[in-house]
Design brief:
The chain has 75 residues and is an alpha+beta fold. The protein has a single domain, classed as TusA-like domain (Translation Initiation Factor IF3, 2-Layer Sandwich), CATH 3.30.110. The protein has two helices and four strands. Strands 1-2-4-3 form a four-stranded mixed sheet, with helices on one face. Helix 1 links the parallel strand 1 and strand 2. The longest helix has 11 residues. The protein is globular, with a radius of gyration of 11 Å. Belongs to the sulfur carrier protein TusA family.
């Protein structure tokens, strides 16, 4: 997987991980992939719903030592 950018949103509470993700996604071109790291447990549902509503693809997500990692491909 070719990651274009990594966003560190660890320690931020809802809705900040989504707000920051949206800002960075606006800087990317279609097809590029953003990797997001967050500790907000609500992000599991939020990221999937946000990606779908924005026409993006949630490629993968992992839970690694209390850190949720998401890979979203810009639509």
């Amino acid at each position: 997987m070719n990651i274009t950018k990594v966003l560190d949103a660890k320690g931020l509470a809802c809705p900040m991980p989504i707000v920051k993700t949206k800002k960075v996604m606006n800087e990317l071109e279609s097809g590029q992939i953003l990797e997001i790291h967050t500790t907000d447990k609500g992000a599991k549902n939020d990221m999937a719903a946000w990606a779908k509503s924005g026409g993006h693809e949630l490629v993968k997500h992992e839970d690694e030592n209390e850190v949720l990692k998401f890979w979203i491909k810009k639509g």
